[in-house]
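Weekend entry, working from home. Most of the wet-lab plans are on hold until the incubator is repaired, so I used the time to fold the two sequences that have been sitting in the queue since the last round of cloning. Logging both here for the record. First:
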Amino acid sequence: MEKEKVPQDKGNLTKNNLKELLYATDENGDYTTTLSTGWEPKTIALSNSIDDINERIAEAKLQVETGKASPICYYMERNKMDLTILASYVGMWKWRVKRHFKPSVFAKLNDTILQKYADAFEISIAELKNIKKD
């Protein structure tokens, strides 16, 4: 894209007085950097993604509150992690982490394991056990 044609639409970046660094071609056809305040299609896509994430977080919280899942599921969604990422953060196999999603298994976890999850989510064990404070 030519430097003069880089989009300058109003979006999330404009609200916070920020700009995004992009690559574009200058008048000689060489690549250079330029700043953009946003591009409407990208703003819409990001907004939709954030809405999807918020829906997953709300669903995970409901699952925990109804006793269908452990708080680990909620905090995993809230921290924008998936099973693979969380397993690597806590140093456990994915199948073991998935097992900890069960409320009955979660209730039996010792403080050493709970601390691994708390550290991964940057919260205390008490917060991990009680999501209602959010």
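Second, folded right after the first finished:
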Amino acid sequence: MKVNVHAVNFTVDKKLVDFVEERMDKLEKYYDKVVSVDVFLKVEKTSDKENKIVEIKINVPGDDFLVKKQCKTFEEAVELSAESLERLLVKRKEKTRAHI
């Protein structure tokens, strides 16, 4: 599985990239046919404290899933997005099993 991390309008540090890649690698437990993951990290210029946006696009054969979360920290947003993706991938896996 290939993980691409894109930082929009800011420079991302190595620690955050490692955290994102490690968390995305755990998704393979739920569905092993994941081809690639694109993670977009954005900072919105607002006075609101929850200005960190994480969009994760996950590519599986025959489908793409997109999850978008906005939180105070990137780590929190990545964690929430990953949990949503876990549920999506489990559903996808059950659906493919039902067709076999």
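Plan for Monday: verify the second prediction. The longest strand covers residues 52-60.
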